[in-house]
Amino acid sequence: AIPDEATFINSGGPVTAGQRQLPPHVSNKIQELEDGTSVLLTVDPQMEALGLPAYPPLPGNTDLAKVEEIRRTIYVGNLPKGVDGQAVLDFFNSFVGEVMYLRMATGPDTLPCAYAYVEFTNQTSVPIALQNNGIDYEGKPLRSIEQPVVSDLINSGI
Predict the structure, then answer these.
(1) How far apart are CA 158 and CA 155, in angstroms?
(2) pLDDT-based confidence at 158, cuts 50/70/90?
(3) DSSP state at residue 148
(4) Using CB atoms within 10 A as the burial measure, which of 18, 41, 92, 115 is most buried?
(5) Which residues contact 104 (CB under 8 A, 6 or more apart)?
(6) Tell me, what DSSP letter sits at residue 18?
(7) RRM domain location, by residue (predicted)?
């Protein structure tokens, strides 16, 4: 299982002191849907200006601290099977921005590749990472996208 940030920090992982916040140019808003539910939309004008896709909507009741963590995290797919996590961490630290936490997963043997969730120290690294979607890593083009949203995971605290 992949622990959430709080579990990782409580288990002795590195931590940066203070409450994290999205940069001032990034805003969140709640949108009511026709079925009576609500979603939380995060607007980043910098990502829009770069032609990057908008962040996926989150359930309207998502804790704002969790929103900030989600918006600093990307999914990276197409990693070579058996890749060293430290090597992936070093790669992103060198070419994108400071990584706070890396969660690696290889999945079942039937999958042709491994994947990871890369949580950056600052949200401003996310557009850089997304602009580098397809960057070569050990002969494979990496697939870098915003962290996919799974409502059940958010609501369960995972």
Answers:
(1) 8
(2) very low
(3) P
(4) 92
(5) 79, 83, 85, 88, 114, 115, 116
(6) S
(7) 72-143
For residue 8, pLDDT over 80 is answered with: no
Q: Are residues 49 and 63 in the same domain?
A: yes
Are 79 and 147 contained in the same domain?
yes
- Count Cβ atoms within 10 A of the Cβ of residue 55 and give its class: 0-12 exposed, 13-18 middle, 19 or more buried: buried
Three-point CA angle 152, 83, 53, nearest 5°? 45
pLDDT tens digit sequence for 118-133 = 999 999 999 999 999 9
Domain count, the chain: 2
Cα–Cα distance measured from residue 18 to residue 70, given in angstroms and rounded to the nearest whole number: 17
Domain span at 25: 5-68
Q: Is position 158 within any domain?
A: no
